[in-house]
Amino acid sequence: AVMTPRVAGWEGVVFQPVRAPAEGVRTRRLSPLMLAETFLDRLERLGPRYNAVVTITRDRALAQARRAEAEIPTGRYRGPLHRIPYGAKDLLATSGGIPTTWGAAPFKDRVFDFDATAILRLEAAGAVLCAKLAMVELAGGMGYRQPNAAFTGPGVNPWNRDAWSGGSSSGSGSAVAAGLVPFAIGSETWGSILSPAGHCGIAGLRPTYGRVSRHGAMALCWTLDKLGPLALTADDCGLVLEAIAGRDPVDPTTADRPYRYPGGGPAGRRFRFGVLRDITDGCEPEVRDNFARSLDVLKGLGTVDEVTMADLPYDDITRTILFAEASSAFEDLIESGGIAGLTAPEDRYTAYARDAILAKDYLKSLRLRGVMAREADRVLARLDALVAPGRATVAAMLGTEVRSAIRGTARDMMGAVGNGAGLPGLAVPNGFGARGLPTSLQFMGRAWEENTILAVACAYQSATDWHRHHPEEF
User: Fold this and answer.
1) DSSP of 230-297
2) Where are the beta strands (DSSP E) in 8-57?
3) Kind of pairing between the strands at 271-276 and 302-307
4) Catalytic residue among 170, 172, 192, 327
5) Interatomic CA distance for residues 58 and 191, integer angstroms
């Protein structure tokens, strides 16, 4: 079922792309305080239905909104995110007594005395933090196999109460799709932004590794982790990325590459798309059908050519790096036996097996990652984007086992290459599949070329209306 956003009263700002309420705030037709109240109400009233929220930051949000009431009349307008409410995945540190739980029961009362850089940059852009959003415990780093792997319960998909919203940024996906916040910040090590975005019918952007500071974010895998936005449209993702991107002296992995988002790109531009041979193998029939229809749309926007990549163990390379670094990142928790307090039973023992990864295998994977990155760049050098189904299947049903490329029970060449080589990727909705659940289309580009795939995705969304479909409340 789909709904048309209501236009009467303050609820009329729900399911609107960021630029709409931003213009209302700028012209003083919308009160920042009432805007915050609208989404705080939805978070409090609807958040529990989706297991989407860990902590509602009402006091902080209202204080920020009140400051905006005083700033805007004086002409101090900070840009399109000025006083736009948002939520942050609960692996980003927040001060002021707001817990940062990492989705894990052993840390549910833990607080920090500082804010993550991404939180500070959004505050500087004028955005209003309304909630810390639920996530799979420890961002899935302990090897979970089913949706119920968080002390807040499984992420519920707003399109079907019996389906999962996807991991590990489950609350971010649910909250945006259900209209609880206009945008959210998630993280991806392998699939944790693109998966909930695709399963929930919204847009999700994985930036180039090093584009966004991870200072104050939980570390799962130092050489794979990335922070990025989930929002209603690709254009929204670009606006948010501009706010959070940039070098950070306290995160030495960030690159000294200033980033500006120019908008959707020049009208009438022709793009060059590539499709990897056999990329739809293993996809559900509806996913394949929707991808084929998406390719027809893309052929109206440019050229679509089949491409091939060298035969390398892409999944194994990225999987070995992830497993080895995760076992190191959580060494104290694992060796102390603290993982016994996690929610998913398999998370209490799977991590021990990863301690058996040999140093020579980790180092071999790091060396092969360089080969993988060069091969990906060879293919992408003559393209604007590689395109593929966002996910091979629609969202899993609650209570079932989740197929995962990370565990080797599913294939995800795009995810392995994109995350292993640190390349930007973007998922947008492209239809519906089994049980009325969304399917998605993903674009992957060269390192540092987020604006190219954003332009591609904006062009696709200008030619389709899947991003205007929203779930009914339940």
Assistant:
1) EESSHHHHHHHHHHHBS-BTTBTTS-S-------S--TT--EEEEEETTTTTT--HHHHHHHHHHHHH
2) 53-56
3) parallel
4) 192
5) 30
Q: Distance (Å, rounded) from C-alpha 90 to C-alpha 86?
A: 13
Query: In three state form, how does the secondary structure of 418-447 look?
Result: HHHCCCCEEEEEEEECHHHCEEEEEEECCC
Type of residue numbered 398: L
Query: Which stretches of 22-81 are assigned E, i.e. beta strand?
Result: 53-56
- Interaxial angle between packed helices 117-124 and 234-244, expressed in degrees from 0 to 180 and rounded to the nearest 10: 100
Residue ranges for the chain with pLDDT beneath 50: 1-9
List CB contacts of 422: < 8 A, sequence separation 6 or more: 208, 209, 210, 224, 226, 373, 447
**Residue 89 annotated to the active site:** yes
What DSSP letter does each residue of 188-245 carry, written as one string? Answer: ESSSTTHHHHHHHTSEEEEPPTTSB--TTBPPS-TTT-EEEEEESSHHHHHHHHHHHB
Catalytic-labelled residue, pool 89, 172, 195, 365: 89
> Is residue 192 among the annotated active site residues?
yes
Non-local (6+) Cβ contacts of 297 within 8 A are 460, 463, 464
Closest by Cα among 7, 84, 15 to 233? 15
CB 390 within 8 A of CB 194: yes
CA dist 428 and 385 (Å) reads 14
How many angstroms separate the CA atoms of 464 and 402, rounded?
30
Rounded to whole angstroms, how far apart are CA atoms 187 and 88?
10
Is 187 among the residues known to form the active site? no
How many CA within 13 A on the CB side of residue 46?
23
Beta-sheet pairing, 226-231 with 183-188: antiparallel
Give the residue from 391, 398, 461, 386 showing the smallest Cα distance to 433: 391
Task: Kindly name the residue from 165, 168, 365, 440 that is annotated as catalytic.
Answer: 168
The residue to which tokens 């029970």 are assigned = 409
Q: What is the pLDDT of residues 277-325, one digit of tens each?
A: 999 999 999 999 999 999 999 999 999 999 999 999 999 999 999 999 9
Q: Determine the angle formed by the axes of helices 450-463 and 285-299, rounding to 10 degrees.
A: 100
Residues in contact with 470: Cβ distance below 8 Å, sequence separation at least 6, in sequence order:
2, 3, 5, 15, 177, 179, 201
Question: What is the length of the chain?
Answer: 474
Beta strands 271-276; 385-389: pairing state? parallel
The tens digit of pLDDT for each residue in 138-173 reads: 999 999 999 999 999 999 999 999 999 999 999 999
pLDDT at site 3: 37
User: At 86, is the secondary structure helix, strand, or coil?
Assistant: strand
